[in-house]
Amino acid sequence: MTSTRFLLMLAGLAAVLVLLPAGTAAHGWGSDDMEIFDLVEEVNENFYTMMQINQNATNQEIKRAFRTLSVVLHPDKNDAEDANIKFRNLVSVYEVLKDAGKREKYDKVLKEGLPNWKSALWYYRRVRKVGLAEG
């Protein structure tokens, strides 16, 4: 009985180890994609609207908008309780929009939406976040 239980647990573990990487590889999501997905969920606002720019804005326009908003949202200049969070979100959004590759991936998220998080990837992301938070 004990060896049967052990074999079942071993088979279950093997299935998880095989399916978990397959779920992420099948979609081809890399670390940049994962960062963008997390940021979209955290900010919960269109990045272009947040930066007060058009979707076809140039890097110079993005930089100008960032500088303008950073003066307003910087925690040293803004006494609001959530100023620190808003400023960090602004910096993160700026990092995505100024990089052509990340910006293209974000535009794809705008068009297609976020992936279905009720997949193995969703559980992987949650475990990864908890692991980093505890470490």
UniProtKB/TrEMBL annotation:
Recorded topology in the membrane: Single-pass membrane protein
Swiss-Prot/TrEMBL keywords: Membrane, Signal, Transmembrane, Transmembrane helix
InterPro entries per the UniProt record, alphabetical: DnaJ_domain, DnaJ_domain_CS, DnaJ_domain_protein, J_dom_sf
Residue span, J domain: 46-110
Localization terms from the record: Endomembrane system
Domain of life assignment: Eukaryota
Pfam families: DnaJ
Classification of source organism: Eukaryota, Metazoa, Ecdysozoa, Arthropoda, Hexapoda
Source organism (scientific name): Culex pipiens
Signal peptide: 1-26
Gene3D superfamilies per the UniProt record, alphabetical: DnaJ domain (1.10.287.110)
Name of this protein: DnaJ homolog subfamily C member 1
Gene Ontology CC terms: endomembrane system
